[in-house]
């Protein structure tokens, strides 16, 4: 069997097998049955630190799964080097059980959050027990919300997003959310409340969260944050009607303006939207279009090829396929757009947003999916 060009990315939907010729010589009927039978995994690995590690589930017999586990060790080595960079560490919570409607809720003093220009989320995700088999069976979104001023429109907004893996317990990721620093610095309260939660019906997970704060030599720093569009909408023909134009007048002392957005697609209509379909997302700033396309969605190895970016390998599920703006077992990468040159200071400006499927408004006929979006406008000053 052979393939050419785009044919090679299309998975076979017809099962096939080879049968010995002598079976056809028999006078009795021949029945062929297909099934997916998991095979026991007897593999283990020694990581760069000399520790014995599980290597997850080999979905089918292939050396690729060993390669992906090796790439994970390289990712962890790079992560360890990144974590050695000097930073002011604020421990939000360590190895707390996350389950149910409440999730994990912790109050942190704001005194040690001020005076920095750079902010990263350092999140680890484990699960009860000592083996992968005790972890949650399904992938779910995990969100981090913050509230430092109950009277602010920023109270309860999302500042970080991850997707849980299929039954693996080794994830750790650093996410740069520096543009959102004003959400935890510009308030009169003595505390900020951090809430991390996932689907309330999901099996328990054990997350840990540190804030990594830096002082930098950059001439500007984020000073003011505004909510643009949240929390998303059903991805049907009415999707774009949910997002109204955002008007703003940046003061003359603003030196830089950015849009910070986290966008993921979920669910499945007849086109695979929103999880497995390719969508594009567009912010128009005074007529200037800024767009991103999640072109890996639906591809056979779209997420397997991203292990070096933090995807937990060899999960016990369909982790290999590309998703719409995310991968199982990884943090969701923010989309940060510098729109400084598209903005006029001390004048009226307008931002609009729209999302497309196949270059046009979505219009599914059944079971529409949804797009989850949290986006912000951020001013930088000296």
From TrEMBL:
Keyword set includes Disulfide bond: yes
Presence of the UniProt keyword Transmembrane helix in the record: no
InterPro entries: Cu2_ascorb_mOase-like_C, N-glycanase, PHM/PNGase_F_dom_sf, PngaseF_C, PngaseF_N
Molecular function in Gene Ontology: oxidoreductase activity, acting on paired donors, with incorporation or reduction of molecular oxygen, reduced ascorbate as one donor, and incorporation of one atom of oxygen
Domain Peptide-N-glycosidase F N-terminal span(s) in chain numbering: 89-213
Source domain of life: Eukaryota
Gene3D superfamilies, per database record: 2.60.120.230
UniProt keyword terms in alphabetical order: Disulfide bond
Name of the protein: Peptide-N-glycosidase F N-terminal domain-containing protein
């Amino acid at each position: 069997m052979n393939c050419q060009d785009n044919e090679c990315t299309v998975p076979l939907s017809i099962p096939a097998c080879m049968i010995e010729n002598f079976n056809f010589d028999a006078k009795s009927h021949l029945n062929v049955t297909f099934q997916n039978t998991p095979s026991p995994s007897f593999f283990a690995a020694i990581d760069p630190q000399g520790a014995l590690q599980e290597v997850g589930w080999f979905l089918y017999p292939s050396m690729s799964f060993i390669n992906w586990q090796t790439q994970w060790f390289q990712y962890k080595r790079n992560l360890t080097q990144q974590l050695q960079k000097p930073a002011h560490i604020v421990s939000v919570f360590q190895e707390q059980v996350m389950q149910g409607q409440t999730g994990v809720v912790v109050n942190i003093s704001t005194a040690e959050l001020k005076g920095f220009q750079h902010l990263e989320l350092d999140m680890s995700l484990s699960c009860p027990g000592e083996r992968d088999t005790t972890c949650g069976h399904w992938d779910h979104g995990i969100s981090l919300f913050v509230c430092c001023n109950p009277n602010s429109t920023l109270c309860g907004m999302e500042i970080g997003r991850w997707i849980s893996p299929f039954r693996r317990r080794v994830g750790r990721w650093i996410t740069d959310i520096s543009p959102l620093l004003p959400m935890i610095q510009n308030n009169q309260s003595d505390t900020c409340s951090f809430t991390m939660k996932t689907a309330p019906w999901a099996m328990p997970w054990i997350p840990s969260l540190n804030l990594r704060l830096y002082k930098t030599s950059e001439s500007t720093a984020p000073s003011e944050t505004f909510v643009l569009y949240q929390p998303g909408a059903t991805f049907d023909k009415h999707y774009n009607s949910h997002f109204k134009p955002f008007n703003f007048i940046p003061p003359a002392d603003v030196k830089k303006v950015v849009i910070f957005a986290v966008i993921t697609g979920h669910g499945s209509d007849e086109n695979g939207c929103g999880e497995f379909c390719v969508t594009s997302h567009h912010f128009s700033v005074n007529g200037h279009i800024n767009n991103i396309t999640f072109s890996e969605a639906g591809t056979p190895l779209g997420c397997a090829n991203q292990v070096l970016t933090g995807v937990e390998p060899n999960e016990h599920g369909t982790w290999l396929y590309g998703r719409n703006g995310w991968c199982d077992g990884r943090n969701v990468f923010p989309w940060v757009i510098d729109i400084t040159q598209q903005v006029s200071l001390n004048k009226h400006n307008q931002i609009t947003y729209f999302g497309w499927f196949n270059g046009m408004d979505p219009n599914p006929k059944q079971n529409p999916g949804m797009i989850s979006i949290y986006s912000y406008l951020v001013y930088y000053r000296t």
